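Internal tracking record. Fields below are filled automatically when a chain is submitted to the structure queue. Please do not edit lines marked as system-generated. If the sequence contains nonstandard residues, flag them in the REMARKS field before resubmitting.
Queue: standard
Priority: normal
Entity type: single polypeptide chain
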Amino acid sequence: MDIDLTPLLLRLPFLAKALLMTIELSLFSMVVGLVVGIVVGVARTYGGRIADAILGFYVDTMRSVPLLVVLIWTVFAFPLVFGHAIGTLTAGVLGLGVHLGAYVAETIRAGLTSVRKGQMQAARALGMSRFEAIRKIILPQALVRMLPSLGSLLTFAIKDSAVASVIAVPELMRQSQVVAGQTYHFKEIYTAAMIAYFLLCYPVARGVDRIYRRVAHLGSS
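SYSTEM-GENERATED OUTPUT FOLLOWS
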């Protein structure tokens, strides 16, 4: 099997720019997903039945609809529904983030409910408000317990960024397809892309795992 890396090396700056776009897309979607997930998870746990029912519908919807459909709807239907056009990068961040947020919300909710109810009662007895008790006592413990699951979701966010290629976000997968189509060196280009995704995801997975081993005792109650 002949391997020719010349086309890959000649287009390395082009692909490096695409890799930076993948990192940017992943980071922004992670931020959106974490913010949405924490707010929804806390609201479903402590916001009462009405909030749980409404936000539960959002979670179930996002978990039932494929990510590809969410991204296509965001870039093509969102402007028609809200009367405001958005760029493909913004659409990618929004679609990926909102989709990820549903899974983060369920992880947050599971973590919060794993903390003993007596800790909330003790915090309220000490004069803390409900919000203070959640922020200072319940949520920190829950986040420690959820680190392994959240680490997996963060790696999913990086991998799912490749799906944004279908809406023309110039990330690594999209630009790899362009280069492969121009050079016909499919095995070299796609192998390089696969290695790049591995190098992005592996440190995140192992890093979160290492952090969890160091702080796991803080989540015990």
